[in-house]
Protein 1
Amino acid sequence: MSISIIGGGIGGLILGNVLKQHHIDFKIYDSAPEIKTRRSRSSIRKNQKIKS
């Protein structure tokens, strides 16, 4: 059995990781020609208050 994952975003990569842990063949398809690292400036600090 082989599974096709459409989209290499966080959801597709997590699904691929789970399938790999269960020894299930898969292939990830994405429209991006190469993998690029995205940097985020947001962070969560311990005891941080969230305003609503």
Protein 2
Amino acid sequence: MNRLDDIEYMKVSLHKLGEAKLMINPHINGAIENDFPDEIIHTFDLETKGILDLYYNWHLNDSETDDRFRLFGTVPIFDDIVYSCIFDFFIGTAIYVSYDMEGRLAIHHEIAEMAMNDVKSFVKKYGLADLIWCYLVIVGFENHQAISYYGTMTEKDFIAGKNHRSWVSHSLEKELFIELALGFLEIIEVEEKRCVQLTQKGRNRMNTEYRMLVDSKYIDHRMKMTYISQFDQLSDWEHISNVMFPNDIQFRKEFLDYIDISEGMDILELGCGSGSLTFDAKLAEKVGKNGWLTATDPSAGMLSRAEDKLNQLDHKNVTFEAASAERIPFNDQEFDGVLGAGFFHFTDNDQALKEMIRVARPEGFVGLAGPLEFDLNQPFFREWFEDIFLLSEQKTSQSKLQIYLHRIEDLTQLFREYGLKHISHQTVNLSWVFPDPQTVVQFMIHGVGFFQQELEFMPMKARNELIQRLLEKGEKICARYSLNERTIQLPSYYIKGVV
């Protein structure tokens, strides 16, 4: 049966794929097979063939039934595509697991074993065909988005994947055959070269794939891991953040004063990062020797830096644990208060707030601090990031970048909807300085992923070229505008509610 056109079925399957943390993500470290030890690549090859023998090849030897038709209907499928599907999920999932477990790209046998088990578990539970359907949607969208971006692409470049899927080592020739057979692409002549372009059917398919990936939340899972991997790789994150937000520690200290933490409380901090709120803003001191502070972050790399700080300080009342705000690994009603600064806009807000309330005791508090929506039409900002504004306009037919920061009224309403009482908030300005191109691009692109929605689906080559243009344009911006003109007063908030 052809499931590719069954939109609701594919949304459910892609959601299951994301929940199982099976990933194909070109932006996680730009990783390719060359980053993997040869013995692990060999193991992946053997295990891929093992899955094929167990779930696929034996069907083909059954002369009584046409199992290829049962699995794939009339969609043209090659054995190489089935192999690439399993192998690519081994690679992508290993990268995901590596960042999730260790906060860096460190592929060893334990990580590889966990990734293979995750993929095998999905196949055992849902079937190999579902994995392949998901694969075809994901790589199909990568292909279609790249061709849409460039208009046309030479047949050679498409087959080599050099512009859009350089992380794969195999040829995309058979994918091209499938795309042509399904009528999504066509071959044309451009300057005496064979080129591929999207048909109208292909454009419609690309839009359908996009809705599948977004509505299934698969893209949310992928982007979340992209955020985490970017934070993990920034060893100088704290320096960059302090340069761009020179009064950030004072902002965090005033947040803690606003929350009014008493000594002896049992506090949970979410999104602790490298410990700016935990140690620099003195949260651990406010809790006191008779209290306890549990600090969490999804980034193992950030937690490692926070633990380095802890080792240099005399705090016996602090522990760290890797955890996301959406899945807090603690019992109900375990803490006197749950708080965090600068993390909430990276989360699934509803799920994160529900979890914060769940683990807070009755009459305990929930507190947040972070940036609010602001006017992007600052002359230097608009000029510097003009290329990204244009990307957003092409994608959304509107001039507003999708930065997904909050409005204070929306946060207040969210607190009300989840039953918090005695809700109060305060707004303040936080100086946001744009000092030099390297620091700014590191922060905006490789750090917080400020433009992640716009850049997520760009072909890798085009994305890298855009980053280089931002660096070059930044030199001109910094020469033309004074530092004062390159400083934004970023509206920010403190909000508190009682459970």
